[in-house]
Write a structure and sequence with these properties.
61% of the residues lie in helices and 10% in strands. The protein is mostly helical.
Length: 163
């Protein structure tokens, strides 16, 4: 953890900057998705299903960065709108999978058109080499954090004595 001149702990500047970006992106995405009567979390669930295919609700929650209970609420809402459906898995009929419907795929298509300007805003004016480096750092960080979350291991404390 970084410390200020007085030795007080501060948020790591990169993490804070990423959180600021995430907050701004969420606001902009919610605004962009409003014509579809969607917010970020349900749209994220739909995009995950569009890319990954049928998933259990627990796996969908993990991949969409949500808690299982929150995902159940999202699935119910999307199911009521006809954007997803639940069906038994072929291998184990006791397992229910969430599947995107054709209507859900159309919403993802429309959403991608509505949200594309936000991503363009993020990168406009960025040097191609800097953008490639940014993409590499994001990919590395995303993979490292995903492994840490998946393994539920604590993040190493590099400032701990003996390190």
């Amino acid at each position: 953890m970084d410390h200020d001149a007085a030795g007080q702990p501060q948020l790591t500047s990169r993490l804070y900057a990423i959180k600021q970006m995430e907050s701004a992106i969420r606001v902009l995405l919610d605004e962009a998705l409003a014509p579809l009567d969607l917010r970020v979390r349900p749209y994220t669930a739909l995009t995950v299903l569009a890319v990954k295919g049928d998933l259990s609700s627990a796996e969908l929650a993990r991949r969409a960065f949500m808690r299982a209970q929150s995902m159940q609420d999202v699935i119910r809402t999307l199911e009521a709108r006809g954007l997803v459906e639940r069906r038994a898995a072929e291998r184990d009929r006791r397992v229910l999978l969430v599947a995107i419907t054709d209507a859900g795929r159309e919403v993802v298509r429309q959403g991608s058109v509505l949200t594309a300007p936000i991503e363009q805003l993020l990168v406009t004016g960025t040097d191609p080499d800097a953008l490639a480096a940014f993409d590499a750092v994001v990919a590395h960080g995303r993979a490292a954090l995903a492994r840490a979350v998946q393994q539920s291991r604590p993040i190493p404390n590099r400032s701990a004595p003996g390190r």
